[in-house]
């Protein structure tokens, strides 16, 4: 029987502990989750007001796409949250209208067949032209390259500047000229490498996609049959980690320790000695879901090469400003808008929360909620040093952006500003080599260590949950054959 330590109480760590208590239960003696702060849930943070209004300060929705997407719905179903799911179907304006800001004008990104043969600004050609360019462009065998360079080669400058650049800023708050296409958009990269073009690759992947194993509960089946594009929970996405915590706290196999920062990990004779606070414990396996740079500091004395790989994965900071206005003040319905890095604006983008999930407007629905994202790769340029950044300055920039880009002249009636320090890892070109180096170091040193969380193979909540499950399944396979 094994004792496992899970480092980190975000969604990855909580999911890992849950899967250990279910999938691996017959092999477990004890599951101990250690969190350095006083709270659990990581970057999923929700503020709930007495009138029912909800502000999200981190992830706010999830997509039921692929194995990871359907796996997350399976988890929601197992936790008894199915009745709390708020879905958005593909025909909804929040799905159909995704905007970008170019020359201080909002433009709808092409979406669906109706845009194929029409020229819409800021694009100079009908969208079919860019797809044809990908089909006739020569395949280039590359190990990796930036999202920007990849998009230029396959589709041309306009797609690189007006789609891939702002989307990269929206997903990881990063620079498309630095971020790896292989690591962030692996399906696009593989499309070219395996099938000669992105379009052919997408068609092939759609044909070969086998999700039957993930469509074994009513919620996942419903999401597919009804055409969900995204979903959240009625009381905010924080309800998901809260449900995991309740489940784990009721399990006698599981112990959760908060306010217990880990100080060091030593691996000796197939065991791990984990030192935290004033205590230590011996474990058969460590599942680390803490940021790679934090883990690096715990291992630097004993495993400098491993620590170096871990410390090379950088993260960026994002200021999140939630604004509530009286009345319906948006001229455009939609998901929101993103700002290409070539445009003049102090925000990465603004999400139209009231359009996406009006249920979160609370009792008094005649209002408008939006969320502004500021910083990322450009945090220091806009707000200065993260440790001294002014919340008031972030609020002012958000209100100014709402005025300049959305024409909202009234002051907000309610607001919330937070700075999420180091919240999004940056998968820069060559990130796959770092992952390979980590794998080799762990294997060569025979470390009973699994790396989880957004630092490695996927920044979305779906990815974090699914990768935790895969790590536990790998652990079960290993321990059952030992």
Automatic annotation (TrEMBL):
Transmembrane region(s): none
The keyword Oxidoreductase is assigned to this record: yes
Keyword DNA-binding (UniProt): no
Keyword entries, A-Z: FAD, Flavoprotein, Heme biosynthesis, Oxidoreductase, Porphyrin biosynthesis
Listed cofactors: FAD
Domain Amine oxidase intervals: 11-471
Protein location: Mitochondrion inner membrane
Reactions catalysed, as given in the entry: protoporphyrinogen IX + 3 O2 = protoporphyrin IX + 3 H2O2
InterPro entries membership: Amino_oxidase (IPR002937), FAD/NAD-bd_sf (IPR036188), Protoporphyrinogen_oxidase (IPR004572), Zeta_carotene_desat/Oxidored (IPR050464)
One family name in Pfam for this protein: Amino_oxidase
Origin: domain of life: Eukaryota
Pathway(s) the chain acts in: Porphyrin-containing compound metabolism; protoporphyrin-IX biosynthesis; protoporphyrin-IX from protoporphyrinogen-IX: step 1/1
Enzyme Commission number, as recorded: 1.3.3.4
Cofactor comment text: Binds 1 FAD per subunit.
Family label: Belongs to the protoporphyrinogen/coproporphyrinogen oxidase family. Protoporphyrinogen oxidase subfamily.
Function: Catalyzes the 6-electron oxidation of protoporphyrinogen-IX to form protoporphyrin-IX.
PANTHER family: PROTOPORPHYRINOGEN OXIDASE
Protein name: Protoporphyrinogen oxidase
Species annotation: Limulus polyphemus (Atlantic horseshoe crab)
Lineage: Eukaryota, Metazoa, Ecdysozoa, Arthropoda, Chelicerata
Gene: LOC106467320
């Amino acid at each position: 029987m094994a004792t496992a330590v899970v480092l980190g109480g975000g969604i990855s760590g909580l999911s890992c502990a849950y899967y250990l208590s279910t999938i691996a239960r017959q092999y477990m003696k004890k599951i101990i989750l250690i969190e350095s702060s006083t709270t659990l849930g990581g970057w999923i943070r929700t503020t709930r007001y007495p009138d029912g209004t909800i502000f999200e300060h981190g992830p706010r929705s999830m997509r039921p796409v692929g194995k990871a997407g359907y796996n997350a719905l399976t988890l929601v179903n197992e936790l008894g949250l199915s009745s709390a799911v708020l879905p958005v179907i593909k025909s909804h304006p929040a799905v159909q209208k995704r905007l970008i800001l170019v020359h201080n004008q909002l433009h709808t990104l092409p979406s669906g067949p109706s845009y194929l043969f029409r020229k819409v600004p800021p694009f100079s050609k009908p969208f079919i032209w860019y797809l044809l360019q990908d089909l006739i462009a020569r395949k280039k065998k590359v190990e990796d390259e930036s999202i920007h360079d990849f998009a230029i080669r396959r589709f041309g400058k306009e797609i690189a500047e007006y789609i891939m650049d702002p989307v990269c800023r929206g997903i990881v708050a990063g620079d498309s000229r630095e971020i790896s296409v292989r690591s962030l958009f692996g399906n696009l990269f593989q499309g070219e490498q395996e099938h000669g073009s992105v379009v052919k690759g997408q068609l092939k992947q759609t044909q070969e996609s086998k999700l039957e194993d993930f469509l074994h509960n009513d919620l996942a089946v419903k999401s597919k049959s009804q055409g969900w594009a995204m979903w959240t929970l009625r009381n905010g996405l924080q309800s998901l980690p809260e449900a995991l915590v309740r489940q784990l706290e009721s399990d006698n196999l599981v112990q959760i320790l908060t306010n217990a920062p880990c100080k060091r990990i030593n691996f000796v004779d197939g065991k791990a000695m984990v030192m935290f606070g004033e205590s230590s414990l011996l474990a058969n396996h460590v599942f680390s879901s803490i940021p790679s740079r934090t883990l690096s500091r715990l291992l630097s004395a004993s495993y400098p090469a491993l620590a170096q790989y871990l410390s090379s994965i950088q993260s960026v900071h994002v200021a999140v400003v939630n604004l509530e206005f009286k009345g319906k003040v948006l001229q455009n319905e939609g998901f929101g808008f993103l700002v290409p890095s070539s445009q003049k604006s102090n925000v990465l983008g603004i999400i139209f929360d009231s359009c996406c999930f009006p249920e979160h407007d609370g009792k008094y629905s005649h209002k408008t909620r939006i969320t502004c994202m500021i910083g990322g790769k450009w945090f220091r340029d806009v707000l200065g040093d993260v440790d001294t950044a002014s919340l008031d300055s972030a609020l002012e920039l958000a209100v100014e952006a709402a005025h300049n880009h959305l024409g909202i002249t009234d002051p907000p009636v309610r607001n919330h500003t937070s700075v999420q320090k180091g919240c999004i890892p940056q998968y820069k070109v060559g990130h796959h080599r770092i992952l390979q180096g980590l794998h080799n170091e762990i294997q060569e040193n025979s470390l009973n260590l699994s790396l989880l969380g957004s630092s490695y193979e996927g920044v979305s909540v779906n990815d974090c949950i699914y990768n935790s499950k895969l790590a536990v399944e790998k652990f079960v396979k290993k321990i059952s054959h030992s």
